[in-house]
Amino acid sequence: MIEQDWFVNDEGQVQSWPDRSLPNKRAQTYRLYRFLTEVEDILAMTDQDQERLQAIYPLVRELLTDSAWLQYEVQPPDPEQGWSVTMLYDEPNFPLTVQTVVWLPGQTSRVHNHAAWGVVALVSGQEKNTFWQRTPSTDHPHKIAEMGELILNPGDTISLMPEAIHCVEALGDEPTVTFNLYGLSDYQARYDFDPVAHTAKLF
Ligand SMILES: [Fe+2]
How far, in Å, are 61, 109, 177 from residue 123 at the CA level? Predict the structure, then answer.
């Protein structure tokens, strides 16, 4: 299977990242704490989210290859909600969210942005992403229009800019498992959208 790396800009447009050269094999196992240190270093180096994502997504791929145990750190999905989240690292005032997320087959998320940059890697299952763009009008400042869809397969990654609006659906008959990394959310700009009523509410 071809593993692909995708990028979604603030307008909900999808493109694939250009081919990257494989990093040299590390002398030591690429452990979670080294990964977090390197991500922190990247954040200190640039405040441009696209540059950050471009530097971080190859590290996510390396981490999941070298520290495969992370892929199995998952809680069974809540049968009522249809999903579950497992925090992999949590520290007060730490600028990153690192988690695995499981969705039951057939479940669909709300339409939302993250108000933070994010990298998501699909570990298992198949996930459909639908993207949206803001098309505000005088009457409906939170009006959005559908931009397109992308189906993620295991091994694919998707890097999201903070204003990228999407929803996800677990396709097929097995749960989806994803590894998710996010920067700091601006909760004054983090919305759930209603694409029919053209409204949004803060998350
Ligand atoms: Fe999301």
Answer: 11, 18, 5
Question: How do residues 18-46 score in pLDDT, each as one tens digit?
Answer: 876 667 788 899 999 999 999 999 999 99
d(CA 102, CA 129): 15
Kindly give the distance from the C-alpha atom of residue 114 to the centroid of ligand 1, in angstroms, as a whole number.
6
Residue-wise pLDDT tens digits, 90-119: 899 999 999 999 999 999 999 999 999 999
- Domain 5-202 class, CATH top level: mainly beta
How close is the Cα of 85 to the center of ligand 1, in Å? 12
Full-model pTM? 0.95
82 C-beta neighbours (distance < 10 Å), count: 17
Task: Give me the residue spans of the domains in the chain.
Answer: 5-202
